[in-house]
Write a structure and sequence with these properties.
Order of helices and strands: EEEHEEEEEEEE
Structural class: mainly beta
Number of strands: 11
Largest sheet: 7 strands, mixed
Radius of gyration: 13 Å
Shape: globular
Low-confidence stretches: none
Helix content: under 10%
Distance between the termini: 39 Å
Length: 125
């Protein structure tokens, strides 16, 4: 099992910012695309953002312009900078590593073989 560990979650007021981090093993980081998903209580896990092995980034429409995905290869870490947070952004945020050979879309949770335990983000109004 390849470990992924998220950090940086917490509570913030609407309009505030948080930066999530995900530390990954070297093998996962170098061979797979990485993504962030989130899951709110009673809802399905949903795609937030992804970065491909080549560095191409894609975002869900609901976070586009507010969230930024980045990575630091030297630290085997990816980040999700979240700004202008809204109460509807409240969820557990998960870091995921993509299966190298999957044909599934990057928005599909089943395209990812590796998952962190998640970190809670709570945005109050």
């Amino acid at each position: 099992q390849v470990p992924l560990v998220e950090s940086g979650g917490g509570s913030v007021q609407a309009g505030g910012s948080l930066r999530l981090s995900c530390a990954a093993s070297g093998r996962t980081f170098s061979t797979s695309g990485m993504a962030w998903f989130r899951q709110a209580p009673g809802k399905e896990r949903e795609f937030v953002a992804t970065i491909s092995r080549s560095g191409e980034m894609q975002y869900a429409d609901v976070v586009k312009g507010r969230f930024t995905f980045s990575r630091d290869r030297s630290k085997n870490t990816v980040y999700l900078q979240m700004s202008s947070l809204k109460p509807e952004d409240t969820a557990v945020y998960y870091c995921a590593g993509r299966s190298p050979t999957t044909p599934l879309s990057y928005t599909n949770r089943y395209a990812y073989a590796y998952w962190g335990p998640g970190t809670q983000v709570t945005v109050s109004s």
